[in-house]
Write a structure and sequence with these properties.
Layout (H helix, E strand, L loop, with lengths): L3 E8 L7 H12 L6 E4 L13 H22 L2 E10 L2 E10 L2 E7 L24 E2 L4 E6 L6 H9 L4 E5 L7 H15 L2 E5 L10 E3 L5 E4 L5 E8 L1 H9 L9
Parallel strand pairs: 1-2, 2-3, 7-8, 8-9
Antiparallel strand pairs: 1-12, 3-4, 4-5, 6-7, 9-10, 10-11
């Protein structure tokens, strides 16, 4: 495991069912990511919430997963993203962690967003699915969009050894301020790095990387682009020593 590495959050517009267009927007930014880095992508970026062609979206998403596995091998990347996936006849919004040519982790989204009817199409995961991915860079805890609102999810993931929370999202513009506050709050509350990638267009953009002290290292605007920052895992230890929230003598 590396103690320092570069992290990226990519943001671009994901258009529902525009498979090739979404893929090309992804590639344009992905090509700028350097070797041995962590890359976080927006939620269901290859297809959007393509309910009008679920079969096509699932097929295309499978191809994209295979491509990212291949890309990551040559560049020794850890990549976090989610896709529409069919398992045993059930549709899931599955968040995946790819590490240097291997899929090392996958789980379904636990908290489906009620305002857009996700539960009418997807099957939700459960809290037993919440685990941390051991990767060549760090222990990554994937979080999917609406799950950002639930501190108990972060608490479970921290208890399982999370060093970096990687948030993949399609978070709407009307709730941009919630997005900004919650990302910083989770970093402060759990004293971990938070690396969050959001969509643009109808979404809020504002992808962000926050350190364990709650300092925003870099924040994206509302348009297409990528942000990056250096992650030093020793910063977690330093913050915990300075502010030992879990220590028995702390008050």
């Amino acid at each position: 495991m590396r103690r320092t590495f570069k992290a990226y959050a990519l943001q671009f517009e994901t258009v529902e069912c525009d498979f090739e267009g979404n893929y090309n927007r992804f590639l344009t930014l992905f090509n700028f990511c350097s070797k041995n880095s962590l890359v976080v992508l927006p939620e269901v970026f290859p297809t959007g919430f393509c309910y009008s062609d679920i079969a096509g979206a699932v097929r295309f998403s499978k191809k994209v997963v295979e491509d990212i596995i291949s890309f990551s091998k040559g560049l020794e990347l850890v990549v976090v993203f989610s896709v529409m996936e069919m398992v045993n006849g059930k549709l899931y919004n599955s968040v995946k962690v790819i590490d240097s040519g291997r899929e090392v982790f996958s789980r379904p989204k636990v908290k489906l967003f009620p305002l857009t009817g996700e539960a009418e199409h997807f099957t939700a995961g459960n809290f037993d699915d919440l685990k941390v991915a051991e990767t060549s860079l760090c222990r990554v805890a994937p979080v999917v969009c609406f799950e950002l609102r639930f501190s108990e999810i972060f608490s479970i993931l921290k208890s399982k050894g999370a060093e970096v929370f990687a948030v993949v999202a399609q978070w709407g513009r009307a709730r941009r301020e919630h997005w900004k506050v919650l990302n910083v709050a989770r970093a402060i509350e759990f004293q971990r790095f938070v690396i969050s990638a959001n969509g643009t267009g109808e979404m809020a953009g504002s992808s962000v990387i926050v350190d364990p002290w709650g300092r925003t290292l870099v924040e994206g605007g509302t348009g297409i682009g990528l942000i990056s920052a250096d992650v030093d895992l020793l910063r977690i230890l330093k913050v915990e020593q300075k502010l030992p929230l879990m220590g028995k003598d702390f008050c």
